[in-house]
Amino acid sequence: MNALDAIDRRRSIRAFxxxxxxxxxxxxxxxxxxxxxxxxxxxxxxxxxxVHNNEKINKASDIIYTAWPEGVKGFFDSRKADYxxxxxxxxxAPYLVLFVLNGNEKNIQISTLPYVDTGIMTMALMVxxxxxxxDTLCLGSLLWGNVEGLEEYLEIPKGxxxxxxxxxKTRDGFKNHEIERKTQVKIVE
Length: 189
Hints:
- The chain has a single domain, classed as 3-Layer(aba) Sandwich (NADH Oxidase), CATH 3.40.109.
- Helix 1 packs across helix 5 (113-131) and helix 2 packs antiparallel against helix 5.
- The longest helix is centred in the middle third of the chain and has 19 residues, at 113-131.
- By secondary structure, it is of the alpha+beta class.
- The protein is built from six helices and four strands, in the order H-H-E-H-H-E-H-E-H-E.
- The radius of gyration is 17 Å and the shape is globular.
């Protein structure tokens, strides 16, 4: 599958098969794609942690979830009925990919660039996964709530978690709905 097809195929999946195992060769390709992403001044300020342990993924989600206000919890709780999942944050994904600042960001004078670099790495990972027939879900939800507790639990230095992605295969029988794209494009010549 070429890159354009992989981008077109990619959707945010909210119903993963929790038992799907990604072959090591495919996982290596996915991680390599993210690691080959450009970074500001070639600072390479983002490391990757892959969690493939349902118990740890569920505990990490619980740490974040319990810190949320009831209204936010209610919004996410609707995923149980809507998508038939147990974990309302990761939607039962068997892999959690964490992007973590490694200290090299101190060498960059513009403080937002490490997060731009993280976004580029995230998209590279998602396109690579899509090209292999796998599915993803961006998890900005892991970046608010008890992030400090999450970082402590996963042994991530305080304040260094930059992004997370759920990774796996869509559960058999789940049909993702098409989303109307509303992005406007203007060409200036």
